[in-house]
Specification:
Length: 330
């Protein structure tokens, strides 16, 4: 019995490790990273996807371990009895990311790059909103870790005490399942009603002989990368729809070449501006990894900094002030 348990543990650990290594190797062939599997739109790490991945690995490992124990004991029939609470857990783990990502896409309509940005958001962001850790996210993370640890303990106790010939995958305690379900409900509720949105700042430009001066014109709250508020200004009337107008060369030079951007980002800004002018966009946003610029009739009318999630919050709320505007990722 002890030999079967030990050998089964080694084999199952190797099987899962080999699968993860092969997957990581395949993803790395095009410069990717396996951990990006838990990143959702804007390449922001998702707590619900993290939980889904963690439980997938735990259940897979437990099933392979128990199956190999049965094989080493001479029972070559696969166990078909999967506990009902396991099905419920996996169903919840699938449903929560779908609902969360669907909410993000329907609300903010993100345009995700095919390739990751130069500076990926840190994994700690899955616990934060506006740069601050939130209770609903921490609670979901806490019960996920507790649930995994307790379930693995039950699996170990089961394989050590049960008849190895007929050992099967243990069920999850219903109380633990309810607590995890409540934490995920709190997480989704916090996302849909508890994450405050802020209005985007818009500004107008006036020229001097040497530079463009940005003059604040509308209501806004601008957030730095840490999520701290940096400015509040007064509200302005909605901007009327305007006909197409090309960006003046001095404005373009100020925006693209005088902000300390890398050469690659300058090229992407130039391409995005050209694309907007070719398509005749009168009003549009240029959205980078941690900043946005609002362009209206060739003039800079809005600027801001923050994470991509915060920026999309700002843009979504600003529709009531400036109307619809196209979004160009750079």
């Amino acid at each position: 019995m002890a030999d079967s348990v030990t050998l089964g543990f080694i084999v199952s650990a190797l099987v899962i490790a080999v699968i993860l290594f092969i997957t990581h190797t395949l993803v790395r062939t095009d410069g990717g990273n396996f951990l990006n599997i838990i990143r959702a739109d804007y390449w922001v790490p998702s707590l619900s996807l993290f939980q889904f991945l963690l439980w997938t690995i735990v259940i897979s490992f437990s099933y392979v371990w128990i199956t190999t124990i049965r094989i080493f004991e001479g029972n070559y029939l696969f166990s078909t009895a999967i506990p009902s609470n396991i099905f419920l857990l996996l169903g919840i783990s699938v449903a929560v990311p779908l609902i969360s990502i669907g909410y993000t896409r329907s609300t903010y309509k993100p345009d995700m790059h095919a390739k990751p940005p130069e500076n990926l958001p840190p994994f700690s962001m899955m616990l934060k909103n506006k740069g601050k850790i939130t209770l609903n996210r921490f609670q979901m993370f806490l019960w996920t870790i507790i649930g995994v640890v307790l379930y693995l303990s039950v699996v170990v106790g089961t394989v050590m005490s049960a008849d190895a010939f007929v050992v099967s995958l243990p069920d999850i305690d219903p109380t633990l399942l309810y607590l995890m379900g409540l934490s995920q409900t709190g997480y989704l509720g916090g996302r849909m009603v508890g994450e405050d949105k802020k209005t985007a700042k818009t500004v107008k430009t006036t020229k001097t002989t040497s530079e463009q001066k940005l003059v604040i014109q509308t209501a806004a709250v601008v957030f730095s990368e840490s999520g701290e508020k940096t400015a509040d200004v007064a509200e302005a009337a909605p901007a009327p729809k305007q006909t197409r107008k090309r960006m003046p060369e001095d404005v373009r030079k100020f925006l693209v070449h005088e902000q300390g951007h890398s050469r690659d980002l300058q090229d992407r800004l130039d391409i995005a501006i050209d694309k907007a002018e070719i398509r005749g966009f009168p009003c549009y946003y240029l959205v980078g990894d941690d900043f946005y610029v609002l362009i209206n009739r060739g003039q800079i009318c809005g600027v801001g900094k923050g994470s991509q999630v915060d920026i999309m919050h700002h843009i979504s709320d600003a529709r009531d002030t400036i109307g619809e505007a196209d979004i160009l990722q750079v």
